[in-house]
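Q: I have 160 residues here and want to know how they pack in 3D. Can you give me a structure?
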Amino acid sequence: MAGKKYPFPYEPIVFNSELPTEVELAVLSKRLVDYQKVLVYYPRFMTVLSQLPSLVDITGLTASTTGEKGENYYIFEPEIGKILDFFEQQIMQLLLEQAFLEAELARIGTQLTTMDNAQQRAIKIIREQKGFLSVANKQHLNLQSLDIAAAMMRNGSAHI
């Protein structure tokens, strides 16, 4: 974003590896709970050969704490607001983890496809080289036969 000169303030979050740990996800989800809208862009794994760019709104959670008349009320310890905040953070953390895991799966699918393409190219190159080697062996045998025949003709011991 700095390279693109993004005009608005932002705070970069860098993980230790491509796949964040549970602790890193927990810290991230705690930071994201206060935002009204959080959009996550990631490659969604469809098949080994295709991944689609995807977008998910992980703040699409709406909770209603008001009840209709005649509804039973329960007392929770701690307060219901704290419980709601806890589960909201847990859900956000799970949705983030899902996005990271799908992105990792898409990356592995791309690597598998690339490796398969490289293997197919290597097989083709090996076949071509074997063909060249076979032609070279035949030429070598022909040259040896010609050398033997020429030597025999020089010595006059061969009748062709």
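Q: Anything worth noting?
A: The CA atoms of residues 124 and 137 lie 20 Å apart. Helices lie at 22-32, 80-155.
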